[in-house]
Write a structure and sequence with these properties.
Elements (H helix, E strand, L loop, with lengths): L6 E7 L6 H9 L6 E7 L5 H10 L5 E5 L6 H11 L4 E4 L8
Parallel strand pairs: 1-2, 1-4, 2-3
Length: about 100
């Protein structure tokens, strides 16, 4: 039997409070279930960080990593890659949806 491989889904996050719940739900509702979600919080303002912690606290597959300073989307993705554990990497922006 084929073993499912872990997929690391990396989400750079900057001021997307309005969209992130739908984005996360679009990932969680996929049929493939062996994944980790790594959100790279790229905002020095922590207001939305607290919100993110609250909406993700019950899901053990979601990790939130806070950048010490703003790095931008590309460098935030690279940071996510460096801490990912998956054999495969997938990217989604915090305001996108997977169908």
């Amino acid at each position: 039997m084929l073993q499912m491989k872990l997929v690391s889904i990396i989400i750079p996050y900057y001021k997307k409070k309005k969209y992130i719940s739908k984005t996360l739900n679009s990932i969680i509702n996929q049929s493939y279930k062996k994944y980790e979600i790594i959100i790279i919080y790229d905002d020095e303002n922590l207001d939305e960080f607290i919100f993110l912690k609250k909406i993700t606290k019950k899901n053990k597959k979601i990790k939130i990593i806070k950048n010490k300073k703003q790095l931008g989307a590309g460098n935030s993705r690279n940071r996510g890659i460096s801490i990912s554990k998956g054999e495969y990497i997938a990217f989604i922006d915090a305001d996108d949806l997977w169908q």
